[in-house]
Amino acid sequence: MSTINNKEFKDVKDDVFIDKLEKVDTFSDEQAELDNIETTAASKAAWLIAMTVSIGGFLFGYDTGYISSVLVTIGTSLGHELSTSEQELVTSLTSGGALVGAVFAGLVADKYGRKMPIYAACVVFVIGTLLQAAAFHLPQFAIGRFVVGLGVGSAACICPLFIAEISPMRYRGRMVAFNNMSVTLGQLIASGIGAGFAHVKGDGWRATVAIGGAPPIILAVLLYFCPESPRQLVAHGRMELAEACLLKIYPTSTTQMRQAKIRSIEASIHEQTGSMADESLWKTTKRIFTTPATARAVFTACAIMAISQLGGFNTLMYYSATLFGLVGFSNATAVAIVVSGTNFLFSIVNLVLVDRFGRRAILKVTVLGMAICMLIAAVSFHYIPINAKTLELTRDVTGWPAIMVLICIICYVAFFSSGVATIAWIGTELIPTEVRAVGTMLNTVTCWSTNIIISSTFLSMMKGLTPVGAFGFYSGVCFIGWIFVMFCYPECKGMPLEAIREVFQRGFGVRYSKQWQKENAAFAKANAKGNVNFGH
């Protein structure tokens, strides 16, 4: 048996040390390349892709926005005046269809890519629009509402996810917020067109519905020129296409930067699964519920989504004209445009602020503001003479309480649109890459299942609990949501998608994310002085 003398042993130790040092240097170089790619300028192509995909958001907004004016102008076009239960039915059927559409989109998005569910949404949007516009009986109109809902759910699930995955880190919040702004623009235009055709005798509402058939055709044409998500391409081993996509998004990046980004995405996927392409749906879903950190991430995203829906906003979208007619405004359809306009205006505010002040800081202010507005509206309803059984005014003069309700609703919409409306969809950034499509599906299912509850019970709640009780309930939901934000919602502004998983390794990660933000700000400040590379 041979022995190693001291000199040979020292040489071996030196070789091992040098080998480890080289590995550290290699990792540091890769990390520097990964950090540096996020400091390069985002291309116009990245914004054009985001704007194209956001047409899906516009469709979402338009097809959920026109029902408010249609309900008050449809009259006997479907053979008879719609009862309260029938109004709730045709309103909630879109949410039911959206629930099914979201499940479909989430199931196929990992296997067939992000673009395929959007194409499918475009097809069903057109079919559903034609069914509604040509309806002369309630069953056909109801089926059309459900079919349109399939497209709404698919678009609502995939469009924010797609945008988040093609967005540079620094612009992710703003790009996803642009999708939400498109939703609010669709709702505003739907309200405006609905108000305009309200003065057309007969079937003016049909034109309001039919106009919604044009945007999905435009989206389908433009989507052809958009690349697939780079994370989706990496997951399926299509590295050359992934690098070409990254070059479009980061046109001034080097080959080394793009390759480092691809390795980072690949490592993030293989860390948990080995390969998304070979992962069964059952295994992916099981991983969400059996991996504590992943479960916390998905739960947090879904909780914020539930708060955004159960807080009552969509009752204002679906029934705004009905509601304002209830409190005594003579031109309720026109007044409803004020709500849609406020919604659109403050979605722009969110677009400007979300990457500057962060998600958590905005939610802390806006969700509390929503709770207060709903509470004041509930108190104001106490002084409005409404027959709870018929939801009709007992006398024509309502005075200041009606004005106060209008002001509270406008302020509520301002808080909602500048906060949780967008951040609920940005919440997909919290979900790890290997389960993101299924996690986003669960997030969207949460959206539409809670939406069904709200849209199908609002008029019944107004009668059963009275307007005071209904709006008091919404206020309570918002306050519970504010408590959740305070204790459980971490700040992930500016974090790479592949790094966010570390947040939920530490509970809900509120403290960890605060520390990360402080350190990142210090790195950015030092980088501005030319001392270090940006990021960590």
Topology:
Elements: H1 6-37, H2 44-53, H3 55-65, H4 67-73, H5 84-112, H6 115-133, H7 138-166, H8 172-197, H9 204-210, H10 214-223, H11 230-235, H12 239-249, H13 255-272, H14 281-290, H15 292-310, H16 313-326, H17 332-357, H18 359-381, E1 386-387, E2 392-393, H19 400-418, H20 420-426, H21 436-464, H22 466-488, H23 510-528
Q: Architecture, CATH level 2?
A: Up-down Bundle
List unreliable stretches of 5+ residues: 12-32, 531-536
Rg, please? 26 Å
β content, as a range?
A: under 5%
Describe the structure.
By secondary structure, the chain is mainly α. It has one domain (33-528): MFS general substrate transporter like domains (Growth Hormone, Chain: A), CATH 1.20.1250.20. Helices cover 75% and strands 1% of the residues. It is built from 23 helices and two strands. The chain has helices at 6-37, 44-53, 55-65, 67-73, 84-112, 115-133, 138-166, 172-197, 204-210, 214-223, 230-235, 239-249, 255-272, 281-290, 292-310, 313-326, 332-357, 359-381, 400-418, 420-426, 436-464, 466-488, 510-528, and strands at residues 386-387, 392-393. It has a two-stranded antiparallel sheet with strand order 1-2. The longest helix has 32 residues, at 6-37. Belongs to the major facilitator superfamily. Sugar transporter (TC 2.A.1.1) family.
